[in-house]
């Protein structure tokens, strides 16, 4: 890849990542109507393991050593396991798709705080201002929403997803950045398939309605999300600071909310729209070159 192609990829990758990642919440809304959350995730990850096995068989990448395999498994449980599990459970407990992205949308604040201490990355005052601006945008989008009852359990699951994706992103950057993404991802997906399968057998009835809606959404989530967006995420982690990558997650609630409005009629009022604008501005501030 020449220098111009690298520059084009660097500009396009964040936009494509945000769009793909946002569709994950929409696709989950469709599959949850037809299957229990952990059961659906076990099926999805089993499909992804098959796809990644084909990629690895063709590419024949270098395999990680035992320590690398262990690190990949931990990263997989964090990035895929608790994050996807928390998101799916949140939607299953009546959290609208457009709102299930909001709590994980706080990730940049948590990531920048930890990265500042754990990875030694310097977060500038301007970047801190951008992170706070994005937090304010998420608060505006979240205003006047129910936070108790069944929804309360859903929000708790979203908090688990927030903590998991934050720690997983930092863990991946610190311990797995030199592992080939193909072999590393295969290890991660095997680990998380076992994780979800165990959860489904322990806590769910494992009932699935194999409708056309379920199959189409499952195919999209397995290929576009688990292969496409995760590959982009790890590419971004390798090519950017943790704070800059995390700031992209501020755009996910906004894009998801717009998609949910079009597809499910989930309404946006003036304050929510203002919050979306603040989130977009926050990403610009955090990522601008100083």
UniProtKB/TrEMBL annotation:
Membrane-topology annotation of the record? Multi-pass membrane protein
- The UniProt record lists the keyword Transmembrane: yes
- Where can this protein be found? Membrane
The UniProt record lists the keyword Transmembrane helix: yes
Residue ranges of the TM segments: 12-32, 38-59, 71-95, 126-145, 151-171, 183-203, 215-237, 244-264, 270-287
Q: Which domain of life is it from?
A: Bacteria
* Gene Ontology CC entries for this record: membrane
Domain called EamA: residue spans: 15-142, 154-287
UniProt keyword list: Membrane, Transmembrane, Transmembrane helix
State the family it belongs to: Belongs to the EamA transporter family.
Its recorded name reads: DMT family transporter
Q: Please name the source species.
A: Bradyrhizobium hipponense
Q: What high-level taxonomic lineage is stated for the organism?
A: Bacteria, Pseudomonadati, Pseudomonadota, Alphaproteobacteria, Hyphomicrobiales
């Amino acid at each position: 890849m020449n220098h111009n192609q690298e520059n084009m990829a660097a500009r396009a990758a964040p936009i494509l990542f945000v769009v793909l990642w946002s569709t994950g919440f929409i696709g989950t809304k469709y599959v949850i109507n037809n299957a229990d959350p952990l059961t659906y995730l076990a099926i999805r990850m089993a499909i992804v393991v098959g796809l990644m096995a084909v990629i690895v068989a063709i590419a024949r990448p270098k395999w990680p050593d035992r320590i690398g395999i262990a690190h990949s498994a931990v990263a997989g449980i964090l990035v895929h396991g608790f994050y996807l599990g928390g998101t799916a459970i949140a939607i299953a407990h009546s959290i609208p798709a457009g709102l299930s992205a909001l709590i994980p949308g706080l990730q940049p604040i948590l990531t920048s705080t930890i990265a500042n201490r754990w990875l030694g990355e310097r977060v500038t005052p301007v970047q801190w201002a951008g992170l706070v601006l994005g937090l304010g945008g998420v608060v505006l989008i979240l205003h006047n929403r129910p936070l108790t009852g069944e929804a309360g359990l859903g929000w708790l699951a979203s908090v688990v997803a927030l903590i998991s994706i934050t720690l997983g992103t930092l863990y991946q950057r610190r311990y797995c950045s030199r592992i080939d993404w193909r072999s590393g991802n295969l290890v991660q997906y095997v680990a998380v398939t076992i994780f979800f399968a165990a959860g489904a057998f322990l806590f769910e009835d494992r009932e699935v309605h194999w409708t056309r809606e379920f199959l189409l959404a499952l195919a999209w989530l397995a290929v576009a999300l688990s292969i496409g967006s995760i590959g982009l995420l790890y590419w971004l982690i390798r090519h950017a600071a943790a704070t800059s990558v995390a700031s992209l997650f501020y755009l996910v609630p906004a894009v998801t909310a717009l998609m949910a409005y079009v597809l499910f009629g989930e309404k946006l009022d003036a304050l929510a729209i203002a919050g979306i604008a603040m989130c977009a501005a926050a990403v610009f501030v955090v990522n601008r070159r100083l």
